[in-house]
Amino acid sequence: MLKLQKRNKLLNWKIKYLNVFILCFFVFLSTACQPDIQEPQDLPASPSQSNIPKTPHESPFKQVHSPVHFVYMIENPLVTDTVTKDLKDGFGETYAQVRGYKDKNLQKSINEKIRTFHDSRKQLTIPPYRGIKRVITEEYELKEHYINTYPTFNFNNLLSLASNSSLVYSNGDPSKDIYLDFTETLTLDLATGETVHFEDLFVNDANYEKIINDYIKIFLEQEFSYEEYREWFGSVELVAPFKGISENPKFFLSYNTLVLLLDSETPEFNTQYNTQYLNIPYLELKDILAIEERFSADVDNLYLDENTPNITMISSYDKYVTGKSYQENKNGVDYYINYRYAPAIPQSIVDDFITHLDPNETPPDYVRTVYKEGSISFTGEYISASIAMNYSGPNEQFVFRNFFSVYSPEGEVLTIEKVFKPDFDYKPVIMSLLEDSISYEQKKFDPNVDELYESLTFRISGDGLYFTTKPVKSSEKEESPIQFGLPFKEIGLDHLIFFD
Length: 500
Description:
This protein is of the alpha+beta class. The protein has helices spanning about 10-20, 105-120, 210-225, 280-285, 290-295, 345-355, 415-420, 425-435, 440-445, 450-455, 490, and strands at about 70-75, 80-90, 90-100, 140-155, 160-170, 180-190, 235-240, 250-255, 255-260, 270, 275-280, 310-315, 320-330, 335-340, 370-380, 380-395, 395-405, 455-460, 465-470, 470-475, 480, 485. A 7-stranded mixed β-sheet has the order 13-14-15-16-17-21-20, with helices on one face. A hairpin with a 3-residue loop joins β18 (about 455-460) and β19 (about 465-470). The longest helix has 17 residues, at about 105-120. The radius of gyration is 26 Å and the shape is globular. The two termini are about 35 Å apart.
């Protein structure tokens, strides 16, 4: 993410919506929202809790107990369409609808629930954000209003949606425009149409509140200590002690994280009339998330598309990475080296990884400049290392190299043979992909396919294995590796050790 500071209100607003969430782009809505001219109350020393008793949530879903291990997701073979309505300049709306169910009545019910949720945003008044002395007076007029209801997660028979309402009030002076945004969320069980509450995500015997609160406390200590790695654009001020998540906090599921919303319902945070997002990596919660067992298991195929679905392994979501960047000159060759890794990566793996960045190598005679860039990250419980290398010399001579490596949770370097189960004949599959991936230019130099196979290294990507070979000539002055992927769904869960 870009780590930018708010220079002015307009720049901060634009940067926020370009970068905070790639899915959080604005499409269009609108309704005649009336300005809320009531001045917010000052924030007390500590957030007060509502005295209105809440009806305890009775989950409609089956109980799931430990142990669980949530490290991969199965994509729903469900199509999500976008319905867009432009009302007039500055006003519009968009919302999602689904198709691909066998049961058309269930599909209709799901779509009606999404549409009702979306339409409810049109009557939403401006929440009285506490701690901000800002009044939208009668001289201000609503100039822009967009509502975008979009899916953020479509896996494991769950559909998670966020609905963002963005508004601009103006008094005729653009420098004094007031920008507001509010987000509401909805997560549905696609097998029943039931709304999923926060506690439904977790196993019944987990103290998920403590686990999440402990994570947030550590996050806050880091977030306000490391300016370089800010999660949020602009300033978010903690104006009262954080006392823990509420009983059913606003959330949505995303590709790699459980996302909590910070807004008017989290008054310990001054969010400047906007919604902010706190991402908790699934890998931090993998032993208490009941998503697979509760919503995926024991459910007949709901969808018309019965092809093998896409399988996605949960990957790192690392903000507070460490590493090194440096430059050296060895024997007349300039080396530029940069690498990054998460602090949770075992030191033995980091040390092994660094050996492949060694500037004491002996490059080809013509080489004068070498760039090496590497990273190490988790995919599920396994660790993948990746290094990209660029060797260049005079007269436009280039050699591109890649090196991949995969480590087990115990730190063992895994060969191709070790990641496949003994009953799977993987070599013909990989050889076929390798041969198909050789470019027309590379084929002119008649590369030895057997040698290329022996040179293969690999890493785990989100949806499969990704391979690279040693460099192959594509012209008299350029060499580059052959790279290709093998999706998990084409191998099958039963043929790989990652899914045991």
